Amino acid sequence: MPTIALLPGDGIGPEVAAAAQRALQAVADDLTFETHLVGGASIDAHGTAITEEAMAAVKASDAVLLGAVGGPQWDSNDPAAVRPEQGLFRLRADLGLYANLRPIRPIRALYDASPLKRERIEDVDMLIVRELTGGLYYGDRGRNHDGAYDTCVYSVAEIERITRTAFRAANSRVTSVDKANVLETSRLWRETVNRVHAEEYPNIELEHQLVDAAAMRLIASPRHFDVILTENMFGDILSDEASMLTGSLGMLPTASLGGDGPSLFEPVHGTAPDIAGQGIANPLGMILSGALLLRHGLGREAEAAALESAVDRALEAGIRPPDLGGTATTAETTEAVLKEIK
């Protein structure tokens, strides 16, 4: 009986986490859920973004489902302040989750919800593979008397392993995104990707794009992309940009893989403190993250496909939460998905 570590987090996190738990239990009734605090909720209760007890429970689980962390009440300019995001960074680092997979597949029923023209996003099916445990977010940082610094560092081994993840996932093409005209880390990135491609995956097409050009092409011709391979910060930005192809950030799931222990699954959206507690958050990104959990975390393709299909059919039947231009509450959207499952 698989155990899922459920980390609801902050803001709308608990609301969408409850929805995803119901949806998962509807397609896989043998799952056991254990709930733990993370982020600001854990800071308020324990003074740390995730406790050692919670980390131990996470490591003992079969998969981890996370809502979202952060909020204005924990924002601070004090470098020594405990921040909710430290809990997420600790999870990624301690679990060795170096590969973040963000599938971008606009749902047919939502084509008109995108700010882009329908003909531009039809049949888009891409995967963004983001390196998750290196780069600026994990480098040395600090302040001196009149400035601040963040250090971007990548090793050959880090680049090799994320490159292999991208090529294994590709159908025909990997687009490696960097800033090799400026950054030394990007030049190492490009050299390493070229070598791994030539030695191990010569039958898959490889192209390189600078991040600014890739950002423009992502909007101008998104069907061009199969797999986008990139480093931590570029991947963070590009995947949020790509959410507009689906109509809303609230629709995007993500999987963080790579370690020997459990993998972590979460929606791309944040805590949305402006609507927290109002019961109007879109739970579909969290529910679809549950589908990725079934597929990549537990190896249950049939249940994952059933959950994704239920979301598609609920949208085709007309359910629309506010971020998609409708008025459906979190509960109503969840019930629409559960109805399709049944």
Care to describe what's here?
A hairpin with a 6-residue loop joins β11 (253-257) and β12 (264-267). The model has no long low-confidence stretch (mean pLDDT 95). The longest helix is centred in the middle third of the chain and has 17 residues, at 184-200. A 10-stranded mixed sheet has the order 2-1-3-12-11-4-5-10-8-9, with helices on both faces. α1 packs across α10 and α8 (211-220) packs parallel to α9. The radius of gyration is 20 Å and the shape is globular. It has helices at residues 13-27, 40-46, 52-60, 85-95, 118-121, 156-169, 184-200, 211-220, 232-246, 284-297, 301-316, 330-341, and strands spanning 3-9, 32-35, 63-68, 99-104, 126-131, 141-144, 147-150, 173-178, 205-210, 227-230, 253-257, 264-267. It has 12 helices and 12 strands. It folds into 2 domains: 1-98 and 251-342, Isopropylmalate Dehydrogenase (3-Layer(aba) Sandwich); 115-246, Isopropylmalate Dehydrogenase. The chain is an alpha/beta fold.
Task: List the SSEs and their pairings.
Layout (H helix, E strand, L loop, with lengths): L2 E7 L3 H15 L4 E4 L4 H7 L5 H9 L2 E6 L16 H11 L3 E6 L13 H4 L4 E6 L9 E4 L2 E4 L5 H14 L3 E6 L5 H17 L4 E6 H10 L6 E4 L1 H15 L6 E5 L6 E4 L16 H14 L3 H16 L13 H12 L1
Parallel strand pairs: 1-2, 1-3, 3-12, 5-10, 8-9, 8-10
Antiparallel strand pairs: 4-5, 4-11, 6-7, 11-12
Helix pairs in contact: 1-10, 1-12, 6-7, 8-9, 10-11, 11-12
